[in-house]
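Practice problem: predict the structure.
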Amino acid sequence: MRVALTTMSAGALAVTVTLGAAGGAQASATGTTAVGTFSYEVRGASVKVPTGCFLTHSVKGSGKKITSQLAGIDCAGLAVTFSQFCNWRIDFSYADTSNKTYKTARGATHSECKGNPLRRAGKRTLPKYGKACAKFFVNGKLRATQCHYITK
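Answer:
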């Protein structure tokens, strides 16, 4: 039985690789950066975010064509239990090869408190090569940035 399952898995992988190779070239990138510990005020109460949270940003596409973007906060360890983000937003920004930001897609500010903020963005064609970044804000203050370089 184990040999049959292994053979079926290998066959499925071969079909997946073959079908995946038939389309145009696609590129994707995922990166993570730590969100440092910080405190902020919510409705008169102090909230402390401990070490252990990360901004993860994924970009899918090819060349200057982005087919999708996703950015969110993931926490591990004690931070999972004790981290809530209120008045948060995630922006996507785009800069040229000289590091000059030419576009920012500002996300909505969410007044509700969440342990795992998330934002998705759809298709976009960039006018220039450079970089695509996700920026995480809490109470209007930048808390983490994660970028991917978009090159030929």
